[in-house]
Amino acid sequence: MDFLVQKALDGDHRSIARLISLVENESPFASQIMAHLYAYTGKAHIIGVTGSPGAGKSTLLDKLISSFKGMGKKIGVIAVDPTSPFSGGAILGDRLRMQDHALDTDVFIRSMGTRGSLGGLSRAAYEAAMILDACGKDVIFIETVGVGQSEVDIVKIADTVCLLLVPGMGDDVQVMKAGIMEIADIFVINKADRDGADRLAAEVNIMLDLYGKKAWRPPVIKTIAETGEGIDELSKALLDHRQYLSKSDEGKKRFYSRIKMEVEEILKREIAKVVEERWKECCNDELISALCAKRIDPYTVAGRILGDIFSRG
């Protein structure tokens, strides 16, 4: 295992892919891997790219990869797809839209399933980003599944969040919803050659005005991902936000919040494993029959199991 970790730290893509698979599949070595890599993390710029299905996230990412490659950056991409109900794996295969970079030694692209996470992200996606960070990637893009308002999970793990909006797709309504405005550090009006792009950009700016003055006002950038129009402006905005975070109290707060979240998520996962194992031990026909006959209720059963677990501890 130490040999595999060292090869990944040296930048070997096959070893990186193997580590991500071990973590994603909750290998017994997963915690050991993440603990070993932790000291090497914290250097990469993690960028979340989110928006409704059909907004052009993958096409935009393809152009952003080229832009950052031109700056000499090493890039990682995690494309979070819906999970197959049969295999548990990702089913959309966003890598097809980034195939020009598939064999690039400085670009690592991985599709991952949501694994039932309502926020569009699984714990493994965050850990995959940490692995890529430790293994020398300068910029890590996380493209989320695009499920709308519940996708605020991305703000927990990304340094910078890009929210893609498209004219004529109801995004002028979507952007008004609670939670959506708060997650974006940069608004991108993609497919800006469509009618209504200027109006949508104006509406976003009006909403930003209503939120009052902040140290960082999210820029509203119009792009046409298919042609690459606006990509240079967007790349500059991403770099500017990175610079802002490095010098501001907000950047420090986000970092502290992420560290706190990381410990909390590990605790939740480990506790869930213990509870699940205990439930399997307790679950039998007699107990299920008692529940069905209303001789006992699920809350009492759960309380007894938890009481037993913590009394043992």
TrEMBL record:
The keyword GTP-binding applies. It holds the Pfam family MeaB. Keywords: Chaperone, GTP-binding, Hydrolase, Nucleotide-binding. Residues 43-249 form the AAA+ ATPase domain. It comes from the Bacteria. One of its GO terms (molecular function) is GTP binding. The keyword Chaperone applies. PANTHER family: LAO_AO TRANSPORT SYSTEM ATPASE, LYSINE/ARGININE/ORNITHINE TRANSPORT SYSTEM KINASE. Belongs to the SIMIBI class G3E GTPase family. ArgK/MeaB subfamily. This is LAO/AO transport system ATPase.
